[in-house]
Specification:
By secondary structure, the protein is of the alpha/beta class. The chain folds into two domains: 315 residues, Spore Coat Polysaccharide Biosynthesis Protein SpsA, Chain A (Alpha-Beta Complex), CATH 3.90.550.10; 133 residues, Type II secretion system, protein E, N-terminal domain (GMP Synthetase, Chain A, domain 3, 2-Layer Sandwich), CATH 3.30.300. The strands form three sheets. Strands 3-2-1-4-7-5-8 form a seven-stranded mixed sheet, with helices on both faces. Helix 7 packs across helix 15. The chain is globular.
Length: 591
């Protein structure tokens, strides 16, 4: 066996090393351009633009969210983002299908709670494609404008699992003055070290947005839309619609990439906001399982590398064609990465066997003949690993970045499988004269995500939830006595119910809000803490499950309160907000 494999490996070493070297040099050039461009843009934004962004007149923005069987996530997505966004002049348009009754019911409930959330029902049963759903949402926006005399100046695309940054719409609003398309960075939500599949997304998205996206922007290349966190100015949307009769290409598996490319061909200016540790990004969960990752990446490779090649060839100027090549070279790079990994493993095993047997290593002569080349490729690979670790450490920390070398090998397997699968599916579809099928990714939403540095004030949350108007808030602030909190003043004035205030506090503080009756709480549970402690610190246990104690509180518990309670229980404390009226009823009945 070795006598057959050794000559084959030796013959492949030279061309593979040359290819790795050329790719490494290409990446180093982009590293330099991208890093410098991101640093310059970041410094410029940090020093002079942030105040202008916050004070810029607010354009009316439509946030569009296509859905198919997203009833498990869309409710939390809308609630989280409505309550977190600092921007005020926006509406959500949620696309649903007539036969997706569960999602339609959730969206209808959201419409009743939030005046700026609207359902956009497709005229036919689903699922179709994301692009098709988006096109019908656009038609719903036009009907809404005709009925209300409104006009949306910016359209922002999002998915049902997205966690929008509170300042995202402010930045898109500001940048849309000078750019027809604005792309916000997209980052996977932080994950544990052992989540290898999701970790690959963390690594690759971070490196791509630290390097490639700033480099594209600096070189004047087209900026591909990420499909989420993309803001299209009204004239850009109408340009796309006039060209094809629709905004998003229904037959395209990656309509987001397609639109970025189409806008550049029509000389619509584009911008990518730079990524940095404290900066803004749309965050979401990506697949955690090997098969799900291959499925999603197969669609990406098919749409970006194969379908766009078929639809547009190599059209555009020299810079555009260069980036088309970079986007498509994964068709070859990914399978070759597996070949390189296998050759490395075989080389290590054959060397170990030679040392153990005391014989000469068969590959030594092949490596010695081109030692300088192989040394250069080794340095290139080391540079690639270290560069990715540096990018990842900026966002997720050095502990997580230590897993990059192992995840890079795992990523090679995923990407190679996706590339091979894409080529196979594309070839079969063409041979049989079938259209390519859009494969939907299953979504999940984080149980709780908060951006503590951007929490909105209680009054702003109540306005966003439609409980009071902006004028009522202004009047309440002007007439509030100094010894009363705003929530208390609003309740005493009869403008809101006590529970409405506590629901807003729940969203602001990231604590659940519960409604409890004394009959629902066991007496033994309520007295799990000493009665005098419960009265002094205004806390009341109401449920004990597993290793946790759920505690009702009418106030946000301070660190002092938490520390004092730890003296009386070893259980994990989980605080739930209840209104003062409900708390007093519980105490009077149970203590």
């Amino acid at each position: 066996m070795a006598s057959f494999v050794d000559p084959l490996v030796a013959a492949l070493l030279l061309p593979l090393a040359v290819w790795i070297l050329l790719n490494g040099l290409d990446d180093i050039v982009i590293d330099i351009i991208g890093w410098r461009a991101a640093a310059r843009r970041r410094n410029r934004l940090d020093s002079s633009v942030r105040q202008a962004v916050a004070n810029a007149p607010q354009k009316r923005i439509a946030v569009v969210v296509p859905c198919w069987q997203e009833h498990g996530v869309i409710g939390r997505m809308i609630q989280q983002n409505v309550e977190a966004l600092a921007y005020s002049n926006y509406d959500f348009f949620v696309g649903v299908y007539p036969n997706d009754h569960a999602t339609r019911a959730v969206v209808a409930e959201l419409e009743s709670r939030y005046p700026n959330v609207h359902s956009a029902i497709c005229p036919h049963d689903g699922p179709t494609s994301k692009a098709d759903c988006l096109n019908w949402i656009w038609q719903a926006i036009l009907r809404f404008e005709a009925a209300t005399c409104a006009r949306f100046e910016v359209i922002v695309t999002h998915d049902a699992e997205d966690v929008m940054h509170p300042q995202e719409l402010h930045w898109i609003n500001y940048c849309a003055d000078t750019h027809g398309m604005v792309q916000v960075p997209v980052l996977p939500l932080a994950t544990s070290f052992v989540e290898w599949t999701h970790g690959v997304y963390c690594d690759e998205f971070t490196e791509y947005q630290c390097r490639d996206m700033p480099a594209r922007d600096a070189m004047g290349a087209f900026v591909p839309s990420n499909g989420v966190g993309t803001g299209f100015r009204r004239d850009a949307v109408e340009t796309l619609a006039k060209a094809k009769g629709h905004v998003f290409e229904p037959g395209c598996l990656t309509e987001d990439y397609e639109n970025g490319y189409r806008l550049r061909l029509r000389n619509i200016s584009q911008m990518f906001l730079p990524l940095h540790r404290e900066g803004m990004a749309t965050r979401e969960f990506f697949p955690h399982r090997f098969r799900a990752a291959i499925k999603q990446r197969t669609r990406w490779v098919t749409g970006i590398a194969l379908q766009t090649w078929e639809r547009h060839g190599w059209s555009g100027n020299a810079i555009t064609r260069y980036w088309l090549w970079r986007d498509r070279k994964g068709l070859l790079n990914n399978p070759l990465g597996i070949v390189a990994n296998l050759m490395s493993v075989y080389g290590a095993l054959s060397w170990s066997a030679s040392v153990a047997s005391g014989t000469s290593w068969p590959l030594a002569a092949a490596l010695a003949a081109h030692s300088a080349l192989f040394a250069a490729t080794t340095l290139m690979l080391a540079h690639r690993v270290l560069y990715r670790m540096l990018c990842v450490a900026q966002i997720y920390g050095w502990r997580f970045a230590l897993g990059v070398p192992v995840r890079m090998v795992y990523a090679n397997v995923i990407n190679s499988a996706a590339a091979i699968n894409a080529i196979r599916q594309y070839t079969v579809a063409k041979m049989r004269g079938r259209s390519l099928r859009w494969a939907k990714t299953s979504h999940q939403y984080p149980a709780q995500v908060t951006f503590t540095q951007d929490r909105r004030l209680l009054g702003e949350l109540l306005v966003a939830r439609g409980r009071i108007t902006a004028d009522q808030l202004a009047n309440a602030l002007a007439t509030k006595p100094d010894d009363l909190r705003l929530g208390q003043h609003l309740v005493l004035s009869g403008l809101v119910a006590e529970h409405d205030v506590y629901e807003a506090l729940s969203a602001q503080q990231g604590l659940p809000c519960s409604r409890l009756r004394p009959s629902e709480v066991r007496l033994s549970t309520a007295r799990a803490l000493p009665a005098d402690i419960a009265r002094e610190y205004r806390v009341l246990p109401f449920r004990i499950e597993y290793a946790s104690m759920c505690v009702a509180v009418p106030e946000i518990p301070t660190s002092h309160v938490r520390k004092q309670l730890r003296r009386y229980t070893m259980l994990d404390l989980r605080f739930h907000l209840v209104t003062p009226t409900e708390f007093d009823e519980l105490v009077n009945a149970l203590l």
